Amino acid sequence: MMPKALSAHSNTSGPPAFMQNLRDIAEITPLLVVLLGLFGGAVVLGVLQSFGYAPWFGINEFPTTEYYERLWLSSDFWISLGLTLYYGFAATLIGLVVSVPLSIALSKKFKASRLFGTLIRLPLMVPYTVGIALALVMLGNGGLLSRISAGLGLIDDPSQFVQILKTHWGCGIIAVYVWKQVPFMTLTLSAVLARKGEDTVEAAMVLGASSRQIFWRVTLPQIMPGIVSASLICFAFNIGAFEAPLILGGGYPDTLPVLAWRYFQDANYAFQLQGMAVVVSLALVSGVFLGVYLLGYRRWERARGRV
């Protein structure tokens, strides 16, 4: 005897909807507790400190804007902010320019594609500080490139090699950022390409589109969500990192993360409140830039009829 078919509107054997919702809430509760208790609590505490609340240091001037006024009225703050944004924008832009063709190549099948994919992922497995050390060994005066140049007779002495590190141009800082974030961007974009498939590209080829037209009108719009996501994450990381600017930067004036780090390292605990004002200011600037970036992207999507 054939079993009776279930009606399309019959109730299934699963739990009721509200029980499923309760189960979902119970599952994410530990994560919410950690996020709100640790991250959220730290943010609130940092903001309070920046407004003068630190009774554990014997300071309770809350609410005061003295630390922000002292910071924002200083020309050094704006120079440091400019350097911070310059390193963040330059590294993110260069990383995208390098990652887009690499992601397209990674989505193709060729003889050495597996080795190519392994080489792309390799920097992800190397600690960030190792990249900084490699920059010192390779690019510093007295480093490998300067010695090779001297060996080839291009310069008389390694000390005459052009100074790449310890300048406000930040070539070493940007190089380390790009080296570390290109694999992340490439894998993100290649995942988007793999999800989209080759159907639209093949259709464009059948219709006679050139390689340039396929890239600008098919491939680039397809990977734009991946470009936005990857660039947001990398930009936020770049403007918040302090190790590379501290070791490879040109010194005073420092980037804002390095400036905050110096305040936190001062023996006078009262300077930590000034450091918190730096951190909160950097978070505000970052939030404004990322918000404007996302707003522009949404408008671009709406203009294309995607939203």
TrEMBL record:
Membrane topology: Multi-pass membrane protein
InterPro entries listed in its UniProt record: MetI-like, MetI-like_sf
Family classification: Belongs to the binding-protein-dependent transport system permease family. CysTW subfamily.
Cellular compartments annotated: Cell membrane
Domain ABC transmembrane type-1: 81-295
Annotated keywords: Cell membrane, Membrane, Plasmid, Transmembrane, Transmembrane helix, Transport
Presence of the UniProt keyword Transmembrane in the record: yes
UniProt name for this protein: ABC transporter permease subunit
PROSITE patterns: ABC_TM1
TM regions (residue ranges): 31-57, 77-106, 118-140, 160-179, 227-249, 269-296
Organism: Pseudovibrio brasiliensis
PANTHER family: INNER MEMBRANE ABC TRANSPORTER PERMEASE PROTEIN YDCU-RELATED (PTHR42929:SF1), INNER MEMBRANE ABC TRANSPORTER PERMEASE PROTEIN YDCU-RELATED-RELATED (PTHR42929)
